[in-house]
Amino acid sequence: MADDDDSTAPVQPDDGDKTASPAKLPAKLPAKLPAKERPTARYRAAALIGVLTAALGFAIAVQVRANSQSDSLSNLREDDLIGILDNQNARGDRLRQQITELEQTLRRLQDSGDRNAAARQQAEQDAAALGILLGTLPATGPGVKVTITDPDRKLTAEDLLDVVEELRGAGAEAIQFGPVRVSTSTSFTTSGGAIAIDGNVLTGPYTVFAIGDSKTLDTALNIPGGVAAATRAAGGDLVVDERDVVTITVIRSLSTPKYASPAPH
Amino acid sequence: MIAALALIVGIVVGLVFRPTVPTWLEPYLPIAVVAALDAVFGGVRARLDGIFDAKVFVVSFISNVVVAALIVFMGDKLGVGAQLSTAVVVVLGIRIFGNAAAIRRHVFRA
Questions:
Q1: Is the ipTM of this complex over 0.85?
Q2: Stretch 13-32 of chain B: residues touching chain A, C-beta under 8 Å
Q3: Which of A39, B18, B44, B50 is buried most, with the most CB atoms less than 10 Å from its CB?
Q4: Annotated domain spans of chain B
């Protein structure tokens, strides 16, 4: 009795025994109950209490597990769920907007990246072409090997320059004359009876490599009245050897222009 | 003694069998558990006071659970389920504290 009452003093029974239903007992034995009623009642009460507390323990375990395991949403009420749903929707909208913005940024950056890459590729191609034409890069391709013999040493610097000019005129893109890569500033000079190219004294026979259309180069050199004829007239010989692959590894260093600078278009 | 043993057995059974709570029971189970706890604390207190009565315990246990569930049910129907659940928990919590204080006085004499 009074087991679930609050802190006010519970009703005090006549004594501390466990059963109170037979409240009116014989006065002589207040602590003892009728023997026939006591055991069954006690067992039944104990069984009931056991069942109830077992059910309580079971419920506690189940509830604790359900609470810790299932997501917390399942215990919420409709209003709360609606609020959470609204929040999530707003958040989703915000994130979708961010995705759109970021995708635009990505596209913009990719475009500019593509442009940059294209510009760089173009610049690299230009640099390669200029390097080959100016002699600052090694070059390979079809061409000719020209061997000029001059046993009587009658060829002059002008004759050798004619060979180079003829090759250029025939479209040679890279020329190596003796040990020197021929470029725009290449010069043939005569010093003390010897011919020098860019200061390097040449000794015969002269070997020239040129990259270009080999047939055209051959034809240009052997044109009647051309350099081959002039060489032979001087007692020497000029032999053109057409090759599928001519590799010129000699390079020049590029001097920085001292006076000239790029003019605006 | 039986009650403590049965409580432990119930917890073990609940842990072993891992049942899932039916959906219709979900709102009521926590409140019912708290109400039953209140009854158990009251029973322990009465036992210490020497006035324990099995019948009162059983009746109060069941009625506590039923009334708590009923209040939550009504609250849900009236649209104030959350508030009423809070109210029930608060009231039961206060009672559990009161009973726990009485038990403490018995056990520790303080």
A1: no
A2: 13-15, 18-21, 26, 29-30, 32
A3: B44
A4: 27-108
Superfamily classification of domain A138-248: Protein of unknown function DUF881 (3.30.70.1880)
Q: Domain locations in chain A?
A: 138-248
pLDDT in tens, chain A (265 residues): 344 444 444 443 333 343 434 444 444 444 444 544 567 777 888 888 888 888 888 888 888 877 776 566 766 777 888 999 999 999 999 999 999 999 999 999 999 989 999 999 999 999 888 888 888 889 999 999 999 888 877 788 888 888 888 888 888 899 998 888 888 888 888 877 788 888 888 887 889 999 999 888 888 888 888 888 888 888 888 888 988 999 988 888 877 888 988 888 7
Q: Could you tell me the two tokens for B4? A: 């403590």
Say yes or no for a CB contact (<8 Å) between A53 and B13. no
Restricting to B residues 47-86, those with a Cβ less than 8 Å away from any Cβ of A are: 47, 49-58, 60-62, 64, 81-82
Q: Do A2 and B51 touch (CB under 8 A)?
A: yes
